[in-house]
């Protein structure tokens, strides 16, 4: 067999996104040659500059129509490659781009995709969480092609394997994939986007090693900013984290109250994360929040109330007022 | 407004586990579901269709709620009628059939769209049971329609030319897309807060007729055996943690486990 992996890159820095590196990490578990597919106006540059070591071949296409990841344009292209080049597996990150594209590709190929997997047991057997992660289902596909989306938090990045080697440009074959977008495609029109600014290099939730997350116990937006932001920044001073701050997360209640942007919500309907360290501040632990963070390696709960659901999954619980505990923790981390 | 730009809206709704409850494993290949209700994201989709109708006088010709499943889905459909849907339809699946995969559901919906000329399909971004997040995108692909997933705001910007603008939630924030209809839209959590169906309205709705169609074993449901569930298991339980007395103890414990 052989695997085609859909790869996204950061258009500003022309490097692979962490989600795509996780996707390659998952692809490696299939134990067959990996071809990476990069699309968009800078894809040729990234293909040459940032091709990771575990990839055996790179395909790219620089058509501007692919720049906004429109599933209407991208899906027929992927179908074309999968049909003509006999790939047995297609993998894509189960992020907002992958979730948009994969099912459409599958429908066009008359196949059922295998969505949001957390483990690969064989080339046809996969594990996927259902019921908000309360149940893990082991599924088996007998379809001629397996079209899979990867829950990135379940496939941590191995720095070595997914890092580009300086001389990769010569050692890994890179090729433009010629494709004419069918003229009858009806697509949406891109109007604009608003991105939550990640100030001074704060990592995004999906790739952060540490997440400091706030809940209803923070009481106000001002308090959230006053207590959570400095604590997240204090992780820059922890040698283990190499000058990188923690990412900031929030519960649904706090997002609904307008303390922070939607995109910082962790939980069943927000992001599913699994950092090395998760610090839950003023969070009681509603089922839907736990679904988004319970696979974190080490969980700390800081909460005024005793015996909240968060305590059942936390490794360390400190009962106390966030107004006292967080500033002290911030100071002592430094 | 030209007559051909009137909206004909189809809202697929799924009967799933009550979102406040968790399923139990009754054997390695079956689950026990304590109680059922409408998939919350489909409820949001349904609400949005009603709001489009209320905000744009004369634009919407028909809203139909449709469910594919057992006869018990009728309860959801009566509620949809009570809230203000014009039509409701049940496509009853054979009792012996396995759970239909999104591909089959998308094919069934495609037939319905083509038969009755719907030009807007709004449905939840995912069902909270199988958490696939597939059906809307698959239906859009089969119909060769544009798709807008994870909608957080929907506006009719040009009823004459049939144009809709949608904000959608993406990992990095928000993206705004425009589309002519026909289009498939999937609803995210913050699109709206669904209304309740009051009991008197439900009682009244129960006098309305729900269109019913039986899905035959021989119908084109090819792929439902191609993705088989081999087993269910519970995720590994976390080891019980400990309480720490103060910040200093917390820091020393975090150092012990090499988290800092």
UniProtKB/TrEMBL annotation, chain B:
One of its GO terms (molecular function) is electron transfer activity. SMART domains: ETF. GO terms for biological process: amino acid catabolic process; fatty acid beta-oxidation using acyl-CoA dehydrogenase. It is found in: Mitochondrion matrix. Its main location: mitochondrion. It comes from Saccharomycodes ludwigii. This is Probable electron transfer flavoprotein subunit beta. Residues 30-222 form the Electron transfer flavoprotein alpha/beta-subunit N-terminal domain. Keywords: Electron transport, Mitochondrion, Transport. Its cofactor is FAD; AMP. The electron transfer flavoprotein serves as a specific electron acceptor for several dehydrogenases, including five acyl-CoA dehydrogenases, glutaryl-CoA and sarcosine dehydrogenase. It transfers the electrons to the main mitochondrial respiratory chain via ETF-ubiquinone oxidoreductase (ETF dehydrogenase).
């Amino acid at each position: 067999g052989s695997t085609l992996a859909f790869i996204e890159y950061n258009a500003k820095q022309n490097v692979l996104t962490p989600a795509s590196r996780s996707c390659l990490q998952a692809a490696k578990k299939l134990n067959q040659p990996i071809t990476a597919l990069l699309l968009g106006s800078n894809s040729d540059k990234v293909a040459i500059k940032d091709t990771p070591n575990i990839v055996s071949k790179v395909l790219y296409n620089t058509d501007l129509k692919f720049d906004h990841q429109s599933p209407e344009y991208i899906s027929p292209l992927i179908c074309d490659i999968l049909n003509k080049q006999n790939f047995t597996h297609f993998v894509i990150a189960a992020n907002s781009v992958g979730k948009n594209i994969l099912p459409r590709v599958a429908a066009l190929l008359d196949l059922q995709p295998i969505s949001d997997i957390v483990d690969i047991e064989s080339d046809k057997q996969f594990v996927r969480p259902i019921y908000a992660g309360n149940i893990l289902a082991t599924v088996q596909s007998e379809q001629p092609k397996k079209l899979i989306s990867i829950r990135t938090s379940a496939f941590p990045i191995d720095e070595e394997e997914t890092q580009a080697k300086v001389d990769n440009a010569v050692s890994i074959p890179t090729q433009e994939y010629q494709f004419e977008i069918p003229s009858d495609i009806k697509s949406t029109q891109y109007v604009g986007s608003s991105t939550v600014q990640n100030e001074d290099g704060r990592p995004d939730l999906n790739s952060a090693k540490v997440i400091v997350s706030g809940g209803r116990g923070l009481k106000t937006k001002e308090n959230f900013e006053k207590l959570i932001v400095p604590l997240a920044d204090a992780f820059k001073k922890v040698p283990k984290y190499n000058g990188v701050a923690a990412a900031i997360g929030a519960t649904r209640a706090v997002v609904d109250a307008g303390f922070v942007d939607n995109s910082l919500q962790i939980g069943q309907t927000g992001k599913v994360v699994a950092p090395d360290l998760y610090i839950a501040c003023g969070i009681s632990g509603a089922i839907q929040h736990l679904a988004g963070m319970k696979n974190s390696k080490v969980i700390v709960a800081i909460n005024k109330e005793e015996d909240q659901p968060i305590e059942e999954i936390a490794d360390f619980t400190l009962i106390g007022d966030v107004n006292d505990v967080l500033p002290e923790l911030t100071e002592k981390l430094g | 407004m030209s007559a051909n730009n009137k909206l004909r809206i189809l809202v697929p709704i799924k009967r799933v586990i009550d979102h406040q409850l968790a399923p139990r494993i009754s054997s390695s290949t079956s689950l026990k579901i304590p109680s059922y209700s409408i998939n919350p994201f489909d409820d949001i989709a349904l609400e949005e269709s009603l709001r489009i109708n209320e905000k744009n006088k004369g634009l919407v010709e028909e809203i139909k709620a449709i469910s594919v499943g057992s006869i018990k889905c009728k309860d959801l459909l009566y509620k949809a009628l009570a809230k203000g849907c014009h039509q409701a339809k049940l496509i009853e699946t054979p009792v012996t059939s396995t759970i239909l995969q999104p591909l089959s559901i998308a094919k069934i919906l495609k037939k319905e769209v083509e038969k009755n000329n719907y030009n807007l399909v709004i449905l939840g971004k995912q069902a909270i049971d199988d958490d696939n997040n597939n059906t809307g995108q698959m239906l859009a692909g089969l119909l060769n329609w544009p798709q807008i997933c994870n909608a957080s705001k929907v506006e009719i910007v040009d009823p004459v030319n049939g144009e809709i603008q949608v904000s959608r939630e993406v990992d990095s924030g928000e993206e705004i897309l425009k589309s002519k209809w026909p289009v498939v839209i999937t609803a995210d959590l913050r699109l709206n807060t669904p209304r309740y169906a009051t009991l008197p309205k439900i009682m009244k709705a129960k006098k309305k007729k729900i269109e019913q169609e039986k899905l035959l074993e021989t119908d084109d449901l090819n792929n439902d055996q191609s993705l088989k569930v081999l087993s269910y298991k519970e995720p590994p339980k976390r080891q019980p943690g400990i309480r720490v007395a103060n910040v200093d103890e917390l820091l020393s414990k975090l150092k012990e486990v090499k988290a800092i």
